[in-house]
Amino acid sequence: MPAIKFRGVDFLEFDKLLSEDERLVRNTARQFIEDNLVPIIEECNRAGRFPKELVKPMADLGFYGASLQGYGCAGMSNVEYGLVMQELERGDSGIRSFVSVQSALVMYPIHAFGSEQQKQTWLPALQKGEKLGCFGLTEPDFGSNPGGMRTRAHKSGKEYVLNGEKMWITSGSIADVAIIWAKVQDEDDRVRGFLVETDRPGFSAEDIHGKWSLRASVTSGLSLQDVRVPECNLMPGTGGLKSPLMCLNQARYGIAWGGVGAAMACYDCALQYSLLRKQFRDQPIASHQLIQEKLAWMITEISKAQLLVLQVGRLKDQGKAKPHHISMAKRNNVWMALECARLSRDILGANGVADDYPIMRHMMNLESVKTYEGTHDIHTLIIGQSVTGIDAF
Ligand code: TGC
Ligand code: FAD
């Protein structure tokens, strides 16, 4: 079977809805992934290795904090940023995860809630990839319900002392700075965000091994035991659970675009394979109605998902996107991508389970993407709350 090379997916003339700048950004990211990630990703996935060598080249293309203004950031529109996320996840969800965390969960909160000194210290270095960050919200006993967190901070002179455990933290052990969400005892347990340099005494990060998903991404548990930070490490604009949830809006939006990328990769591979693979009377399997039904389902869902996330992106660019809009896009597009991965795997038969093709890797990755940043069911409840006004969590 000849090697299958991605050709792009555009059934409904979606490209015509994009501006020239948007297409340029998308094509640049697409070429980067084709040249730099595609040749190494299967080896990284097998070895459980994060391709750190791509950190700097991605910084040079302006991928980190791409939609932020100032501090060396690229100042892209939300649609342009989304198209970058789509292309990164077309390569691998783990790489998109890394960029999502660095951008939406580390640089965004510093930009939105940080002091001017914090912004000057961290944003240019994070943008250049000279420093890496992670986002610690989830705890061993509090995932969907982060409001229950046990991590606490209390004031001691001109310092805060932090204690707690964070779990399932992307980039945890490679980060220079961790955004740690903690309840502040001196403020009636109000949730606040702290910048914690990871070389501070009492801070440790241990990688989670044995993942069948996002193998090219680092995932760690964090432990904070009497970690002391100066009071200027508190992000002054944070206050309440709303602050970390605002960061999640940014990351969930990128994931919704990423789902389209992973689905495109699977669909295009399955389509090309079905035209090459022959069974019965020397006919390509694409000639069978049952194969065509799968392809028709996928191209329909991918086309709908493209339009959904573009509309959410346009609303976001106008400052009108609401959290429940983003929930709809994340929930639908990740589910759609996982279904496309399963159908595509089926079309490839036995070859579908081998890593000569990207499909099984995408399928395994998407199991995490369906769970993190709010599970599929939590997003169902967010949409349900929005339309009924009733909280069913
Ligand atoms: P609730 O009482 O509803 O809300 C508390 C306050 O927050 C406000 N709010 C939001 N604000 C901005 N954006 C949103 N999306 C918001 N959702 C709620 C809300 O209005 C309220 O404000 P105020 O002013 O009244 O205080 O909070 P709740 O405790 O009932 O929880 C609501 C729920 C379940 C939706 C929320 O907890 C939730 O989203 N849970 C899911 C947790 C989650 O997504 N965790 C993600 C961790 S990070 C991660 O997974 C990174 S993966 C990274 C990668 O590798 O890509
Ligand atoms: P739980 O909350 O225990 O949920 C288990 C099941 O119960 C789910 O099906 C859920 O939908 C369901 N459920 C829960 N509550 C309800 C309800 N009220 N009604 C109906 N069903 C419900 N977190 C971070 O903070 N930072 C990171 O960088 C990060 N990276 C991650 C990377 C990976 C690879 C993974 C897998 C996770 C990561 N997470 C991160 C954690 C992620 O956000 C959580 O896993 C997610 O929020 C779900 O929490 P949980 O796993 O504890 O599941």
Structural features:
Butyryl-Coa Dehydrogenase, subunit A, domain 1; alpha/beta; seven-stranded mixed beta sheet; Butyryl-CoA Dehydrogenase, subunit A, domain 2; 11 helices; 3 domains; binds flavin-adenine dinucleotide; 393 residues; Butyryl-CoA Dehydrogenase, subunit A, domain 3; 14% strand; binds 3-thiaglutaryl-CoA; 7 strands
Topology, please?
Blueprint: H1 20-37, H2 41-47, H3 55-60, H4 78-91, H5 93-113, H6 116-127, E1 133-136, E2 152-156, E3 159-170, E4 177-184, E5 190-197, E6 203-207, E7 219-230, H7 242-276, H8 289-317, H9 323-347, H10 359-371, H11 376-388
Parallel strand pairs: 1-4, 2-4
Antiparallel strand pairs: 2-3, 3-7, 4-5, 6-7
Helix pairs in contact: 1-4, 4-5, 4-7, 5-6, 5-7, 7-8, 7-9, 7-10, 8-9, 9-10, 9-11
Flavin-adenine dinucleotide is lined by residues 101, 135-138, 143-144, 168-170, 214, 219, 368, 371-373, 375, 377-378, 393.
The helix content is 40-55%
Shape type: globular
Task: Give the end-to-end Cα distance, rounded to a whole number of Å.
Answer: 49 Å
Low-confidence stretches: none
Number of domains: 3
> CATH fold name of the largest domain, please?
Butyryl-CoA Dehydrogenase, subunit A, domain 3
Q: What would you say the CATH architecture of the largest domain is? A: Up-down Bundle
Number of helices: 11
- CATH C-level class of the largest domain: Mainly Alpha
As a whole number of angstroms, the C-alpha radius of gyration is: 21 Å
Instruction: Work out the strand percent.
Output: 5-15%
Task: Give the mean pLDDT.
Answer: 98
Give structural notes.
The protein has 393 residues and is an alpha/beta fold. It folds into 3 domains: 14-127, Butyryl-Coa Dehydrogenase, subunit A, domain 1; 134-233, Butyryl-CoA Dehydrogenase, subunit A, domain 2, CATH 2.40.110.10; 242-388, Up-down Bundle (Butyryl-CoA Dehydrogenase, subunit A, domain 3), CATH 1.20.140.10. Helices cover 49% and strands 14% of the residues. The chain is built from 11 helices and 7 strands. It has helices at residues 20-37, 41-47, 55-60, 78-91, 93-113, 116-127, 242-276, 289-317, 323-347, 359-371, 376-388, and strands at 133-136, 152-156, 159-170, 177-184, 190-197, 203-207, 219-230. Strand 4 and strand 5 (190-197) form a beta hairpin. Helix 7 runs antiparallel to helix 10 (359-371) and helix 8 runs antiparallel to helix 9 (323-347). The protein is globular. Flavin-adenine dinucleotide (FAD) binds at residues 101, 135-138, 143-144, 168-170, 214, 219, 368, 371-373, 375, 377-378, 393. Residues 101, 135-138, 143-144, 168-170, 214, 219, 368, 371-373, 375, 377-378, 393 line the site of flavin-adenine dinucleotide.
